[in-house]
Design brief:
The protein is mainly α. Helices cover about 75% and strands about 0% of the residues. It contains six helices and no strands.
């Protein structure tokens, strides 16, 4: 089983790109465009995941999910949310029914 090291390395790279010139990297250009552009990219990737799933092509789906995760990491980094923050939430939810977890959220 692969651990989270690769995701932590990607997270570190994304953090380093925050201060980079927009023309120096794709991620730096996304940061420079702001929240709306990053959110648009996440939505685009989510749609591509859905289309790949409907096509039933496993490799295509894996690649599109990877793109979605990557752009979600960009969004998280933009808001100073780390992988460990998400893992804490997964741990909190572990063993709790999805129905019960959703009911416990404030309205």
């Amino acid at each position: 089983m692969i651990d989270l090291e690769v995701i932590h390395r990607v997270q570190q790279t994304l953090e380093e790109r925050k201060g980079a010139a927009p023309d120096s990297s794709y991620v730096a250009s996304l940061y420079a465009k702001g929240t709306d552009a990053i959110c648009k990219k996440v939505a685009e990737e989510a749609a591509e995941v859905i289309m790949a799933a409907k096509d039933g092509d496993r490799l295509h789906l894996v690649r599109e999910v990877c793109d979605l995760w990557f752009h979600s990491l960009v969004l998280m980094s933009h808001f100073d949310i780390g992988v460990d923050d998400i893992m804490v939430e997964f741990r909190r939810r572990e063993g709790i029914s999805g129905i019960d977890e959703k009911k416990s959220r404030p309205t």
